[in-house]
Amino acid sequence: MKIDLAYGKTGLTIDIPGDQTSIIEPQFIPGLPDELGAIKTALRNPIGTSPLRKSIEPEQKVGISVCDITRPMPSKRILPVILNELKHIHPSNITIFIATGTHRKNTHSELFSMLGELPMSGGYNIVNHDAFSQANLTKVGVTKEHIPIFLNTDWIKTDFKITTGFVEPHFFAGFSGGPKMIAPGLAGFETIMKLHDSDMISNPNSKWGITHGNPIHDSIREIATLFPSNFTLDVTINKHHKITSVYAGEMFQVHKAACEFAHSTAMREVPEPFDIVVTTNSGYPLDMNLYQAVKGMSAAHQIVKKGGSIICAAECSDGIPDHGSYGEILKSQASPQSLLNMIEASDYQKHDQWQVQIQASIQMENDVYLKSGNLSTDQIIEAHFLPADDVSKKVSELLSEKYRNGTVCVLPEGPQTIPFLREVDRNIPYN
After folding, report:
1. pLDDT at 429
2. Is 312:293 a contact under the CB 8 Å cutoff?
3. CB burial of residue 325 (10 Å; 0-12, 13-18, 19+)
C-alpha cells in the first residue's frame, strides 16, 4: 500500500503492507469558497462584541498578534482584510507583533513570506517578540497559581489589542490559538517557564484536546482574562492550508467555537492501540526542526502499545535547531531516564525543557525512529532516537523481526489528526 506522508515541502511516499495497516487522517474539509469574504463577514459580524472597524477610534494605537514562522497560519491572506477594516487608522499607529514565545526571531525573508506585501511595505510597525529581553517586558500581575505575568511592554501600551490565531489540538495546552497568542506568544521567559514546568507538563490533563481542568490551558486563560485582547480572529485550516472556518469577536467565545470545530474534524477515536505507528509533523513549516517534530511523536504516542514502535518522518530543514536549549539538554544526558530525572529535580529550570520532558517520557515507553533528510545519523542518535533512513523498509523489518502479525497505523498528517483510545478523552472544549 502506497501512502503519501506530509514531509517537508515535497512530501514522502511510503509503501507498506496494506492488510496490516490503518490510516487515520482528519476529516477533510474543503477550503471556504470565498476566504476573503468570510473573513470580512466575520470582522463585521463578530461574536459577542462590536464590528472591528467601529470599535477603534482613529487616534488609537493598535496591536495585532500573529503566529510566527513555525505555524502554517495564513496571515498573508488574513492581515490585508484586517488592515483594510482599519484604514481609518494611520499605519504608523498599527504594530504587528510576531508572537514567538521563546522561539527565535523571524528573519526579514520569513516575515515577508508570512505577512505579505502590504504589512511589510505599508508603513506598519513589525515587532519580533523577545521573551528574553527584560527591558522589553512589563510585569502585570500574578496568577492564582503564583505564575508571574510578564508581557511585551509595547503590546501592553497599545490601546486596542487584536489577536489572530490558528486553532488545532495542542499536545499539552489542549488547543492552539485564542489566548495562546498572548501567553506564551507575547509573554516573558519567566512566565513561559512557569507555564511549562515539569509539574504542569506531567499533569494527566495537560494533553491534546483537553481544556477544562488542564492546568496549562487554565493558566493561559487566566492571563488572557487579567490582560485581555479587545478583539480576536481565529481560523482552522485543512492540509492544503486553506481556511475551513473563521470566527471573530470576543476572545473566549471565538476560541470556544474554533476549538469545537477543530475537535470535531481532527480528533479520531480508535478501538485499540497499534504495534507500530508511523507519523509526521504535518510537513513544512511544522516539521522544520526536531524540536517541533516532538508533537508528531506525541500524537502517535496516544495510540501505540507500550513497548511498541513509533516512526516519525520530519524533514528538519532548520536542524535540531541550533537556537534554544533543546539540543543542549538532549546532549547533556546519556538516556531518556537520566533526562527525566534531571528535569523533574525541584531546582531544574531551563529553556525548552518541556519539549525534552515530553520526548523522553515517550522514549521511556517506546522505541522512536526518526527519518530526516537534514539530520546526520550521529545527530539522530545524540537526540536519543533510532535512525530510519527508509520508512517503508523499517516498517517491514519491524513486522518481520519484532511484531509478527502486528498492526500498523499511519498518521500521514501527523498532529493534524489526534487519535485517542478512550471515550473519556472526548473532552468538549470550554466545559
Report:
1. 56
2. yes
3. middle
Q: What is the pTM of this model?
A: 0.87
All structural domains of the chain? 2-24+270-425 (3.90.226.30), 35-265 (3.40.50.11440)
For residue 305, is pLDDT > 70? yes
Task: Please state the rounded mean pLDDT for residues 369-376.
Answer: 97
Q: Output DSSP code: residue 371.
A: E
Q: Angle, nearest 10°, between helix axes 353-365 and 290-301?
A: 40
pLDDT tens digits for range 253-264: 999 999 999 999
Asked if residue 84 has pLDDT above 90, the reply is: yes
Confidence of residue 423 (pLDDT cuts 50, 70, 90): low
Contact in structure between 395 and 14 (CB atoms under 8 Å): yes
Lookup result for grid cell 513509533:
310
Other C-beta atoms lying within 10 Å of the C-beta of residue 34: 10
Asked if residue 336 has a cis previous peptide bond (ω within 30° of 0), the answer is no
User: What single-letter DSSP state applies at residue 47?
Assistant: B
C-alpha span between 263 and 32 (Å, rounded) = 18
Q: How far apart are CA 199 and CA 219, in angstroms?
A: 13
pLDDT at residue 112 tops 70: yes
Enter the DSSP assignment of 133. -
- What's the grid cell of residue 27? 476529516
